Every structure is written in structure tokens, then in C-alpha cells.
Amino acid sequence: MNPSQFKAITNRYGKLRIAIVGDFCLDRYLEIDAARAEISIETNLPVRNVVNVRPQPGGAGTILNNLIALGVGEVFAVGFCGDDGEGYELRKALSAEPNVSLEHFVQTPARRTFTYTKPLVMRRGKPPEELNRLDLKNWTPTPKPVRERLVQAVRALASRVDAFIALEQVDFAQTGVVTSPVLEALHAARRANPRLIVVADSRRGLGDFPPLIFKMNAAELAVLVDAKRRLSPAQIRTAAASLAKKNRQPVFVSLAERGILGALPTGEVEHAPALPVRGPIDIVGAGDAVTANLTTALAAGAGLREALELANAAASVVVHKLGTTGTASVREIREVLPLVR
Description:
Blueprint: H1 3-10, E1 17-22, E2 24-33, E3 38-39, E4 46-47, E5 50-59, H2 60-70, E6 74-82, H3 85-95, E7 100-101, E8 105-108, E9 115-122, E10 129-130, E11 134-136, H4 144-157, E12 163-168, H5 180-192, E13 197-202, E14 213-217, H6 218-224, H7 233-247, E15 251-254, E16 260-263, E17 269-272, H8 286-299, H9 304-319, H10 330-336
Parallel strand pairs: 1-6, 1-12, 2-9, 6-7, 6-8, 12-13, 13-14, 14-15
Antiparallel strand pairs: 2-5, 3-4, 9-10, 9-11, 15-16, 16-17
């Protein structure tokens, strides 16, 4: 990619409208001052003193943060939170972001707000040390009235947006935002408008998803194609190309330190190597940055190679941000992206 191509693509970001249909959660960072450690008089157990609390959107909210950092013109949050304190914090954090619409974000007493509580031990001159995480999740199927409101949101936005991102963050099917009816609505929207970009990513795997643009890692691809063992680079290439042809939709496979591979239904396959590591890294949030940047680049008219390069550069920016689920701005991506002159 040369500087003119980079500028032409990223200049279109401000005109885009993108909807995120997914499991929004609250990332609550508890900063613990290691120098203030003490022993409880009552229990004789160590006490960790929290000196700062940093709430920010996580899960699908991390993708939203990345879209905002890229300067996307309007971002629609399609999801839910509980009628609880964590839900208040999550809505407050989401509404603080510019260009974010919460008109299709459901607050309901029927659900708990998905929360990741992340204790961090802070020591002067050292990277934060993350302790065991404390999670708040929903373990029952999403109630029908909530599902129906989310389906209505997808249908209402289908003619208004340039792209959808469907992110499933839950461990058990049908317990989050991306339920079967919601997937059916997204698939119907894409069939009605073949130019609509719909990117799907799920930590459970995409085996029960309709044919959308798939973004996954190599292990998830192996499960999807029913491989009995870890796939070699050549097998990943073949499997991704075959899946793209079968689904008639692009397939993207993140390969950690080996970069990202993309395949189109036409048979075109590209691999973009990861950028060099420049110091200590924290991989939290890198996958969401890739999803956000692939979607935005494609919606802005980028080709396969260009989208891969932009997503790779974004991941490189994010992994070098320690102790937080970071984002990558266009300026930051430009600083690390090797451009051909």
C-alpha cells in the first residue's frame, strides 16, 4: 500500500455508518497499589487496596472503541445490559463516546450486565500485573422479548448502515445478543443487499452461523473444517479458500505472531505477516482491533491486501499498550504501517 491508497481509504471512514450487534460488557479495571498492602485484622488474610477504578466498554464495546478511534462517522450499539450498577456504568461509558447511538441498546432487568473485573497490581516502573479476573455473566437463554427487540433493531438498521459486525462473546449459545433469530435477521439483511458488509466473529466458533464474512483464528478454523489436528500454514490457506468459495463470502484467519490470512470466493488468497514486536506486549484486544479494522477498511472500499495490512498495523499498535484493552487510531496505524513509496 502506498501513501495515496492509505489516505484515500482512511479518508472515507468519517462517512461510514457501522452497527455492532454483539455482547457488550463492562471492563472494570481495579488498580491496586502494591505499596499499600496490609493484613486484615479480622481474617489475617492479605488485603489489596484499590486506589483507582477504570470502567470502559469491553467485548463488543472494544470493537466500538476501535471504530471511534478510527473516526467512523456513526456507530450503532445493538445489544443489552442489565438494570444494575454495572449497566449504568456501561451505558455511561458508551454514551460518552462521540458519534455513538444507543437507540437500539436495550436495558432490561431480565439480564445481568456482562462484566469483566480485572484487578491490576501497580508497581512503580513496572508493567501492571493482572490478577485472577472476576466475571459476571448470564447462564440462561436470552428471553424472547429481548431477542425480538434485537431482531427489530437489525431490520431497522439494515438500510441505514454500510456494515454490521456480529460479535459473540458468550461461552454458551443463545445466552447473549447473537442468538439464532438475530443471525437470521443479519443473513436476511445481507441477502437483501449483497453489497452490505456483515462480519461475524464468535469465541464459540462459527459452525452454526449463516454464510457471512467469517473472521476467526487458526484453531477455530480447524474445528470448523473438522480437522483432527492443528493445521499447517498450507492447510490453513487451502481450508480458508475452500470455505470462502463455499460460503461465497470472504474469510479472514488471524494467525497471532504470523499475521493474518484472507481468502475471497474468487480464489484469491493473501497473507500479511505480522509487524515486528517493539517491546513488551499485551495481546488483550488485538483480535477486536483486527475485526474493527477489517470491517471498516472493507466498507471504505479497500481491497483484500489493503484490509489485511491495515488490520495488521492496528493489532501491532494495540498489543504494545499495556494494562488496558487498547485501540488504534488512523494516526497510530500510519506511524507503524510500512508504506511503499
